[in-house]
DNA sequence: CTGAATCCTCTGCGATACTG
DNA sequence: CAGTATCGCAGAGGATTCAG
């Protein structure tokens, strides 16, 4: 594989911005665990995601879900029970992350082999 | 695309670990700019990468390069000039990152379209 | 049950100065 | 030139408590 971009000026800056956009979305300790939970259970309640993402606090979960919603990756639905419950699910756009996460997974596995030699 | 993993227990945990491995390597403000510089210029000196990665401090560059070297993504070669210079380049393993970065770029572009609508 | 509010700690990162 | 050493701040994230 040729390891070059055509132009280290223009195109390079655009690429940097795009990669940063992706990283910003995925960044932090909890984004991917949360997304994975929503990916598996197509609908999931707050307290359930809390259990799936082992170790997270409600403060963090709340914050992260809000960001994911702002980024149009997750949809929030209030269910009018007593007491109120809330359901979260991936948007169509959110589902496209699955592919990206798969790539990250694959490279991570290959990388671990290189580092640990196994 | 079906958005599921086969098993939310076993396989899920392995995937989480792999993704985190990838993210750890790429994490932080400067890893990708540095890698991109090395990707374009197949060999590059410390002071040059410093200029490529606009805004980075020598302290940070030094730290990041060290981490990349530990992760076997980058190779360091001391050139015995006066004063000494040092050349960095991607390892074979490091070059495999290009593909991953491309995926991150592509998704970042698509994501920006969704968010900004343009 | 689903958060919001507070408080506190720890880490990433910038600025600057110094060394071989 | 290629780093290392020190300092300081801002933001990420944990624990706990409160509210609708």
pLDDT < 50 stretches of chain A: none
What is the tally of beta strands of chain A? 3
Measured on Cα atoms, how large is the radius of gyration of chain A?
A: 18 Å
SSE-based structural type of chain A: mainly alpha
End-to-end Cα distance of chain A: 25 Å
- Quaternary organisation: homodimer
Compute the average pLDDT of chain A. 93
Strand coverage percent of chain A: 5-15%
Strand order of the largest sheet of chain A: 1-3-2
Task: Give the fraction of residues assigned to helices of chain A.
Answer: 55-70%
What is the N-to-C order of secondary-structure elements of chain A (H for helix, E for strand)?
HHEHHEEHH
Counting DSSP H or I runs of 4 or more residues, the number of helices of chain A is: 6
What is the largest interface, and how many residues per chain? A-B, 48 and 48 residues
Shape of chain A: globular
Biggest sheet details of chain A: 3 strands, antiparallel
């Amino acid at each position: 594989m040729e390891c070059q971009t055509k132009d280290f000026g223009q195109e390079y800056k655009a690429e940097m911005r795009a990669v940063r956009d992706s990283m910003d979305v995925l960044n932090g300790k909890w984004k991917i665990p949360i997304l994975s939970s929503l990916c598996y259970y197509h609908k999931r309640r707050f307290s359930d995601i809390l259990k799936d993402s082992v170790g997270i606090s409600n403060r963090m979960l709340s914050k992260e879900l809000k960001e994911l919603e702002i980024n149009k990756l997750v949809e929030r639905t209030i269910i009018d029970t007593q007491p109120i419950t809330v359901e979260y699910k991936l948007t169509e756009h959110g589902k496209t992350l699955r592919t990206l996460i798969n790539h990250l997974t694959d490279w991570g596995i290959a990388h671990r082999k290189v580092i640990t030699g196994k």
